[in-house]
Amino acid sequence: MERSGQVMEAELRRLMQEHGAYLKRLCFLYLKDEDTAEDAVSETFLKVYRALPDFRGESSEKTWISRIAINTCRDFRRAAWYKLVDLNTALERIPSEKDEPTVHDDTVMKAVMALPRKYKEPVLLRYYQNLSLKEVGEALNLSVSTTSTRLTRARDLLKTKLKGWYFNEE
Amino acid sequence: MKNEPFDTIVNRRLSGMTFEGEQQVFEALRAQDTPRMPATRRRFRLAIALAILLTLLLGTALALSLRYTAGYSARKAADTALMQTYSFEQETIGLFWVREKQQGDSTLFTYTPHMTPKKSGEYQVLLKKDGKAEATWSLDGADPKQYESGSLEDPIWGPKQMNTYLKLKNAYYGKAAQFDWENVSQWTLAQRAEVFGLLRQMQLAYGETSSYKDIVPDQDDIQPEAARQLAKEYLMTTYGLSEDYFEAFTPSLVFQESLEDHIRRYHIQFRNAAARDDYYLPGVEIFSVTLQSPSGTFEKTSWYLADTAKRSLPAGDLTAYRQAVTEYMDSGAFELLCAADKGRLAQRMVKAGLVDLLKDTSYIIPGPGMLDEKEAVRLAQDALRERYGLTPDMLTLFDHSASLLKQENQVVWQVVYVGRQVLRWGGSEKPPIGEYTVVMQAKTGEPTKVSWSLDGVETGRFTKETWGQAKAYDASVLPYFKALMDAVEPILRKYGPGDWYDMAVPDQAAYDKLYRDSGFSKERYPHDLPGPDDLTEEAARALAFSALREELQLSEEVIKELNPVYAYFLRYATYAQASPDMPVWSFRLHHREGIYIVDLSAQNGELIIVKYEPAAAGNG
Fold this sequence. Notes:
A: Butyryl-CoA Dehydrogenase, subunit A, domain 3, disordered C terminus, B: five-stranded antiparallel beta sheet, five-stranded antiparallel beta sheet, 17 helices
């Protein structure tokens, strides 16, 4: 059965306000292109709207939306046009809100963005969306042990890349 | 900077990156009020079709000829120019959302696809005063080799790809509509694998992928009956329930393989009778379990109860029930307990090593020398009346929860009043009535804190006619709010929570008028009753059907299949050419998974919008 259109639209508006910016950044880190990230977030929220009647709260709202966003990013990456068209937005071109005249050190972000997909996904959900290990597993449809293994491997890769710069144990 | 959390780094560095596409998302959804046809309505398809036929007969007499608003004629000319220039098919136009902008004497129409805007680009049509139209594509300058084959694998999607995409996706919806989804939970695994396999192939053809497929178990897998039994036993263990508890539940089973890690999983549900039709109805109870095969590892489990108060925990030691207690706490069931039961349960949780689930709160069991709960609640009400002017009648809009707590070495009563959720409330899930908290000494009842979550929000002075503009509903506004809730309740009660699309025109009008009369915006509550100078619903409906026949060339066969048909009378609509001077009759006519939309002037019948939103535009 359906929920009222007004209720659903109000709910969608709330979800966009609450999660929009986070998802945009998540999708950007995943897809490496700001415009594509914007498209992916729009697509995510359209899917969210269509799936709202079926959302039963079996996972947290954040986990649920993150899962849809990650799946959307995967679809975008799989698309032929994504592989063929150079979409990368150079990180240097992205100003921060206050755009202070400081030099940004993007070492960590670049290292995460360069991770292979199977490691990048759990890292983004765990360390950017701050989901628990269990929630990351739910979002990626992985067991907790597989999730844990991938995160460990991701940290190993990052440790190598960021040697002497940054590392933060879980 | 080193050793900063990753989210801090990202949020600071990308602080300027926000999501700007809210409007685009709503534009894509606009006019797509797309409830799938509820099961109950399907059963009455024939009766409704007959009713439509009767309307058609009546309509033939009324609809002498169609008239067009200037806006409709302009849009039609722009659509035609686009179709002719780029060989779009009529139906494909429904994949675009269209913006309109005046440029001197000309009108510029911009067509943005609902899907894949990046690879499809945008189209524009400049319609000049003399009626000449010029269509352009943002990717006109791209190398034609990138799209001329028409393959969906091409890096750019031109008109050919969009026409193909629509056909393939419509074929998918057409095929999907042939199956008996009402009983999908009862399908065998073989049926599921066959249907979903077929549909997945069809989805792949237009580029939609999924991360799993439905399969049937092979000889090494746990077999379905064993999986059901294992799941039931696991649920009994997880929630401390007896086998008898499951007697009134019906199991359903899905078996899928992940296309990424190739793990095979059973998703098993046990639903009670109330859960057959609707998740949101009172009494619904659903257990869900995910079981890997052949390993027999359980991944996820949950127990959904629509009535939180009915959730229970096993008696005795809770050490083995972390999952059950976690769900209990997350569901809000704990807050519904009396203070003594909270204290007792908290004690059991501490004993079982589950103190982390209490989130740093120390609950105490009320004892001698302390105020009892009833007295604490009474004193809290006194404090709220004194500080905020809240009367007992106003407090009926809130749920309250009392707890005896240990805070900073003092034992205190905490009474919290939380605003109830209001059905169909616009803007957010809850009206801005906030949450009140009273903390008082457990022995004396002396308040140490009386607060409102909306303290600091400007409340202003409002009357019965203007209070809808208030940002926070304080005691001066709550009586008006309660009166409105009491007034709309009989209207909403006529319809189920998901059936407001069915609201008859007089009820839509009565409902919105109540809100308008309270100071809510007429744009948000635009429905009204047609006046003596307006077309009747029957006449408008007949014109709408004529428009579908003549403008979109719908066959009688399709006309007969339009079901359900939703009618709305909007006196204060803010879109298209509607205005208080031009109230609108708006019809949404569902056909399979797509929707035909007809908006027309309620005063002279001129057409404002006649279009088809295919399922592929996001209606599915």
